[in-house]
Amino acid sequence: MHRAVAYLLVGPTRDEQPAFARFVTPGLVRSLQLVGSANAVLVLSWWAFDPWLFGAHAPTRRAYAVLRLGTALFQGSIALGVSSLRAFRERPLHLAVPLMWANAALIGWFVGQLGGPATPWFHFVYVTSFFSIPAPVKVGPRLGLNLVGAACVIAGYTLCNPAYLGEPFFAVGVSYYLWTVLTATVLGQMAFRQTVESFRATEALARFNSTLEAEVSRQTESLAALSSHLDRAREADRAHIARELHDELGQELTALRYAVSLTQKRWERDPAALAPSLANLASLVLRAADTTRGLVRELRPRLLMEMGLGPAIEWLLGRIDTADGLKTRFVCPSPLPELDAELAATAFRVVQEALTNTLRHAEATALTVTLTLGVDSLKLSLEDNGQGFDPDGLRAHAGLGLVGMRERVRALGGQFQLQSAPGRGTALTVVLPRMTPTEPR
Ligand SMILES: Nc1ncnc2c1ncn2[C@@H]1O[C@H](COP(=O)(O)OP(=O)(O)OP(=O)(O)O)[C@@H](O)[C@H]1O
Ligand SMILES: [Mg+2]
Q1: In the chain, N or C: fewer CB atoms in 10 Å?
Q2: Which domain holds residue 253?
């Protein structure tokens, strides 16, 4: 019972009303243009058949002629009004409903011309209730619209001959008519419910689209920021390497060149006194080799290259100062098998950035880093008990650490998941696909 009432009361809320009107009005205008003009044309074109259908029966032909002219007038006015007048294009029912009622009264009058309640003509009017089914209105106004329509028919009918009121079949006809009014109201409400549902689905889709658009432009912005940050970082790296090459390796090579020419001169003068020069040369070569190694070490974390991912992470965590007040725990299968160099470097950089974030932003007292190895994946999770933050609330230019991590992980085809909320700590999970180990490039 309760569900049936809820079903009948379905309709847009007060807040939804303006958007709902915008949603249904264009379709309603198009239907009224089409149905109104088609009705007008049809009732007029069938006129040609009247002599053949009704022969010489003048009263019937006259009644039909009035019905045709009136209907063409009302229906044509509906089509014309909603097409040309702005007020009715915006509120088509304000024109269509009164004209439909007038048309209903005309139909009643016409049926009355053909005979009283004892003849079958009155029963033709039941169908008029069903014309309201497509109207996009709630159940209350719909019932009112149908009842007034029926009252117009009966008024036209009895105006034609008030004596019909006293005939015994009249009450029976009206009671059947009432039944069709109620049926048309329920059927109309069913159609209306579909309209409301498709309106809500369209609205939800539009909302989803706009959040999607916002998300895409947010991501595009942060990727653009990341890309220019990477460009700047690459430039800074290049400048640093150039400086190192110039200041360190360049100096050492100049000294080497000088020592070689000195040795050459000594060899020409006194080959026996060559030993100290050669020793000097050897030490210069050693220094140049050291400098080169130092540069290489800076470009790729040495620990990672020499000891592998597990110890490199342990080393990172071990560097934390006790003054930071952060206790760390590292859970890792040991020994780790040999991993692909790029995979290990990505995992290392993720831990490095997440750890820096925990130290800089979290005010946490505990951080657990867990590394698990599957057959074809490596999973890293980092959980701190700090103050957390709202990841959705970050502005596009908030920082580049998280964006950089996410992009690094995605570039390897991995998954990146960040869970955090103010006061709830932060948990980062990264899953990277494992590849066959390759030599570090
Ligand atoms: N573990 C964490 N606990 C609390 N807040 C965090 C944590 N990690 C990140 N945040 C928040 O997310 C923001 C973005 O982090 P992200 O690493 O992207 O940038 P950043 O650390 O501010 O700058 P950088 O570009 O140097 O990394 C931080 O500014 C911080 O507010
Ligand atoms: Mg950061």
Answers
A1: N
A2: 233-302
